[in-house]
């Protein structure tokens, strides 16, 4: 049962990282005028990604200001999500293999 919970957590973290990467790519496409803001398909994907990522990134933006117009808070959040994914895997291995304390 605990294995399923850890796998669900890893899957959710993977989806969050995917949405963050799509958010960054679309923001770059908008910034360099590769894609028009009037494109409805890209606009709907952008709105979805923004709705998902803004609540996660907003607290980081308070502490990490943009540097030369580049928002580094998304990159920091990607790093945190990656570290959480690897830690969940590490905890799962320790728990299932019974190698003592996992905290």
Describe this structure in words.
The protein has 103 residues and is mainly alpha-helical. It has a domain at 35-79. The chain has helices at residues 2-31, 40-63, 73-97. α2 (40-63) crosses α3. The relative contact order is 0.15. The model has no long low-confidence stretch (mean pLDDT 86).
What is the structure about, briefly put?
With 103 residues, the protein is an all-alpha fold. The chain has helices at 2-31, 40-63, 73-97.
Indicate the radius of gyration in whole angstroms: 17 Å
Poorly predicted tracts of residues: none
What is the arithmetic mean of pLDDT?
Answer: 86
Q: β content, as a range?
A: under 5%
Give the class from helix and strand content and strand pairing.
mainly alpha
| E-strand count | 0
Percent helix among the residues? Answer: over 70%
The major sheet is characterized as: none
Shape, principal axes of CA atoms: elongated
Order of SSEs, N→C? HHH
Q: Tally the helices: what do you get?
A: 3
Task: State the separation between the terminal residues, measured CA to CA.
Answer: 19 Å
């Amino acid at each position: 049962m605990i294995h399923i919970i850890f796998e669900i957590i890893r899957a959710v973290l993977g989806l969050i990282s995917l949405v963050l990467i799509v958010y960054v790519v679309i923001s770059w496409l908008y910034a360099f005028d590769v894609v028009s803001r009037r494109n409805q398909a890209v606009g709907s994907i952008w709105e979805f990604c923004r709705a998902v990522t803004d609540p996660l990134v907003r607290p980081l933006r308070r502490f990490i200001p943009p540097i030369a117009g580049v928002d580094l808070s998304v990159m920091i959040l990607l790093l945190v999500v990656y570290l959480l994914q690897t830690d969940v895997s590490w905890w799962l291995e320790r728990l299932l293999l019974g190698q003592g304390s996992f905290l």
